[in-house]
C-alpha cells in the first residue's frame, strides 16, 4: 500500500495544508479517506476525479467531509461526465447531510453521482479489507483499518482516548493518529481529541510499528506535537505533511 497525505491540518484548513484527507493506493485502486475542506484541490495533484475508486469518511464534521460538495459538482458537470457513481462509505445519514450542505432536495440529493453506504464492522473495498470501530467524539465517528497483502494501515479519524482504538490498531504497520490537543493543558476538553502523549500511548499499547502524527491545528506546531509523542512511544515517529508519501 501507498499512503499519500492530501490534507493534514486539524480542525480547519491551514496556510500550507488542506484539512484531513488521505489517499491509499494498491493494485491501481484509489481509496480516499476523508475529504475535508480544501482537499479536493490537493487530490487532483495526484489523481483525476474519475480515478477515485471509493471514499471513506471517518465522520461528518466539515474538516473531514465538506469537499464532497465540490466532488459532487465535478462528477456531475466536468467534461466526460457523468462518470460512474463513486462509492462513499460513511456514518449513518451521510447522504442526507451532504444534500443539505449543498441545499439539494434530499431525493435524489447527490445519490446520482455518489453511492452512499453506511460503515459496517468489516467490508471489502476494491483490493482492501476495511474494518471500522466507533470512536469517542461528539458525533458518530469511526477509526478505519485498511488491510492489504499482509500490511495494515490504521487511521484514527477524530477521537478521544479509548480502548477500541487500541484493539483496532493492534499490530498496525502504520498508525496515522490525530494529535489535536496539547499535552499538559488543563483546559483540554474530554472525549474530543488526542494529545501527542495519548497518540503515543495508543500506538504503544497496540504494538504499532510506526506512528505518523496528523490533524495538528495550524495554531500548534507539527514538529513539537510529534516530538511530544516520544514521551510515550519509543518506535519510529513521523509527521504528516502535505503530499508526503509513506510506503506500507
From TrEMBL:
<protein>
    <submittedName>
        <fullName>MBL fold metallo-hydrolase</fullName>
    </submittedName>
</protein>
<dbReference type="InterPro" id="IPR036866">
    <property type="entry name" value="RibonucZ/Hydroxyglut_hydro"/>
</dbReference>
<feature type="domain" description="Metallo-beta-lactamase">
    <location>
        <begin position="18"/>
        <end position="215"/>
    </location>
</feature>
<dbReference type="InterPro" id="IPR001279">
    <property type="entry name" value="Metallo-B-lactamas"/>
</dbReference>
<dbReference type="Pfam" id="PF12706">
    <property type="entry name" value="Lactamase_B_2"/>
</dbReference>
<feature type="region of interest" description="Disordered">
    <location>
        <begin position="183"/>
        <end position="206"/>
    </location>
</feature>
